[in-house]
Write a structure and sequence with these properties.
Chain A is an alpha/beta fold. Chain A has two helices and six strands; from the N terminus they run E-H-E-E-E-H-E-E. Chains A, B, C: It comes from Acidovorax soli.
Chain lengths: 119, 119, 119
């Protein structure tokens, strides 16, 4: 069930998306909170129209959002968040002169109304 | 007020988006929880950079997120979720040899800070 | 930490995204709830495949989602929502014959599992 959406600003060219997809899924599927590897759906999105803050500086961001069914403990959620940050820290490009910010967010999905099936 | 965002993986070509938009809006606007048809804003998004799990299998997904103002009963949310799943089950392509997963999520939006107007 | 995502339907051509990015960030960073201007990451997304309601009318939407760490008061969240609505009201195009709907949503992000760092 987990959905992972990673978004990064368009001024991070040559982002190794394929490598990051593989690394993120490997790291998360090895965690006991992900019961079936089949459940994890990860995607990358590029934000081409963006602005960070108000200063005339070169800035970039990468932001990951992991959506899991509600009921995880705070500790489990923090572990998942740290896992994702670890992979993205390693693989995110750092162009010279650009301040790159990384953030990871865990979102609880409402379990009672969640629908899921294989077609 | 409801916002419906349907996302599908790029390996589901010829997704009948126009037909699905019409069918989803017709189904949801006929439900008593949608008070004014004008309120329902549905969009489709294609995820071209994605990976599902870790196995070397052909897999695809379609995921719908319905965002409604908080206050719905669990029963009403489950009904809305099932309605959406029903339409997508019918219209999502199933390429041969590809395992397609369908999921639907209902999200409560904070009512107190929601702003809405016609321009 | 705030993430602002503004989405608008593709039938609002010539949306002044650059101007709106600057105006939104200026307005929000002047609010006491945004402690460091560097934290605010704003992006625009165009929804090209969409449908609003069921009537055969020309309709458009712009929807903003501000994601903030949990803990804000309802009053603070309403202020932020109104600030965003004010900027978008001023800058959103209004093509003749098209009904344009504007909405703003504030989302609480789980503080305990949020990860954030500069690379």
């Amino acid at each position: 069930m987990p959905h992972l959406i990673v978004e990064y600003s368009g001024n991070l060219p040559h982002y190794p998306e394929a490598e990051a997809l593989t690394a993120l899924n490997a790291a998360l599927c090895a965690h006991p909170q992900v019961l079936d590897e089949l459940d994890l759906k990860t995607r990358f999105v590029v934000a081409d129209s963006f602005e960070i803050g108000t200063a005339p500086a070169q800035r970039a961001f990468v932001h990951a959002q992991l959506r899991v069914l509600s009921g995880r403990t705070p500790e489990a959620k923090k572990e998942l968040s740290d896992l994702i940050a670890g992979v993205l820290r390693q693989l995110t490009p750092r162009p010279q002169g650009v301040l790159v910010q990384l953030s990871v967010e865990i979102v609880d999905m409402d379990r009672g109304s969640y629908a899921k099936e294989k077609l």
